[in-house]
Write the structure tokens for this entry.
Amino acid sequence: MSEIKNRIDFIYIFDVKDGNPNGDPDAGNLPRVDPETGMGLVTDVCLKRKVRNYVQIACAGQAGNDILIKSKELSGEETFINGEIRKMYKEDLGIDLKLKEKAPSDKVSAGRTAMCKRFFDVRTFGAVLSTGANAGQVRGAVQMTFARSEDLIVPEEHALTVCAARDEEKPYEEQIGIQGRKATVPYGLYVCHGFISANLAQQTGFSEEDLELFWDALKNMFDVDRSAARGLMSAQKLIVFKHDSMLGNAPANKLFDLVKVEKVCDGAPRSFSDYSVTIDKNNIPANIVLEELI
């Protein structure tokens, strides 16, 4: 595995058409919205879930690329974090822990390292492993912000009708007709900012190979996560700033300011072509390399 030695900052731009990119359970699963501005939001947790799902599918059965926080709908399995920690202690460190038994305090550090080696998402995003058997806490090398839409979104609700009854013991007419609602965004372009720490990468074992897998996930994760509820979601831009040092050579916000996303249509945007994405390449510091991966 190749060690990461450079700080990396990145901008990830994606869009949604006629779908719900991230429902808010506190608002009847309507698309998340900043109540003061009307801008759409997609949480970092939602995006990390899609990365996990992609790796879970793309790297199924590969040692070292398992996913701790699995999606049952993909794996068909019920995963329990404490159970996975006990399994690691037994298989990797030869410590057979009973249910609710804590690992010896002098073995927690080794347990933490072993969990990072086993699970891609642990060494990438971090995890709280201090419950149950206890394998400490991991601060991930990759951190991401909420994604925010460039313009305000207008969530729409659509009535859904059912034409087939299910229960023969109930009147047929009571079981057909309007039975639910579906929320969508006509169109939204979302921008997420991300940070990769070389220092934390060396602590968790997040490698250059892991980084390539992470980039692959951002490029392709929407294509393995299709559903009627999400409409058409697409990755549109992945802009990477690679510093020539571990600590970095410029503030991340100054680099992000070099990327401008501007609406170029007169009315409400309805496609990515209604926006212009430009990069001020003349003001990128000489010791920072720009890469456009999408």
Remarks:
- The longest strand covers residues 177-196.
- Helices lie at 44-58, 72-75, 81-93, 108-118, 120-125, 198-204, 208-220, 252-256.
- The chain has a mean pLDDT of 91.
